[in-house]
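R.M. (postdoc): so does anyone remember the format we settled on? I'll just put the structure tokens first.
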């Protein structure tokens, strides 16, 4: 019996075909534009104004890419379901706090594990 979590061979090939169909033209377009930029920087004075913005774009993009890889390597995407349950628990606590009204003292809220002050 096959594991239902394992993708079928057909689905795997379809995913690879779609990825190649999307990524290869994008890579070709970016590569040709980058070659144009390098040629522009080497001699054309009219297009030299574009070097600084494109360099900033490349540096910012590479920074975000490195941040993504760092997050993936440190397990930031392992449990993507927990934040929604944490949010619901926080909402429940805030609703309980509002229901207590002005009678709730900071010490009582602290003992219950509810932060007092900023909601």
């Amino acid at each position: 019996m096959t594991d239902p979590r394992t993708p079928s061979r057909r689905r795997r090939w379809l995913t690879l075909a779609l990825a190649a169909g999307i990524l290869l033209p994008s890579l070709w377009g970016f590569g040709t534009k980058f070659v144009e930029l390098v040629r522009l920087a080497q001699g054309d004075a009219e297009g030299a104004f574009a070097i600084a913005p494109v360099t900033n774009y490349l540096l910012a993009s590479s920074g975000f890419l490195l941040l993504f890889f760092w997050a993936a390597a440190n397990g930031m995407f392992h449990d993507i379901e927990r934040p929604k349950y944490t949010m619901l628990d926080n909402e429940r606590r805030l609703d309980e706090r509002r229901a207590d009204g002005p009678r709730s003292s900071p010490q009582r809220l602290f003992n219950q594990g509810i932060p007092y002050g900023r909601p």
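R.M.: ...and that's the designed sequence above, right after the tokens. Also worth knowing: Residues 11-73 form one domain. The chain has four helices and no strands.
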